[in-house]
Structures are given as C-alpha cells and as structure tokens.
What does this fold into?
Amino acid sequence: MGRHPVLTAVMVIFGFILLLPGVCAIFFIVAEAGSSGTDSALVLLWVICLLIAFGGVMLIRQALRSPRPRA
It folds into this structure.
C-alpha cells in the first residue's frame, strides 16, 4: 500500500519551502565572496540556512521514494 498522493504533494511543497533559505544563503555567499573579512555570525547564519535547505532536500527525497512495506 502506497502513500496518499496528497501527503506526497504536501511533503514536496514543504520541501521546496525549506529549500528557499539555502538558495538565499548561496546567493549571498556568492555576492559576499569578493569582500574581505566576513563576520562569523553571518557565516553561522549561512550554515544554519544551508542545514535547513538540506532538510528540505531530504524531505523531497523521502516524498519521491516509494514507502517501504511494513513487516
């Protein structure tokens, strides 16, 4: 028995929402690459945003995989 299609769609939508902070962080990392002396608090914020985006990738991956049958 598979996962309900609505649940899969909701998982994918939330996964894409979680990807947005990572995309924004990557944009600012690239924009900030030319400047010297990046603040450590800013780097920590980028790392947190990238971890949130990683959670979004894992959620999308889980949504698109077929569920394992129960034993």
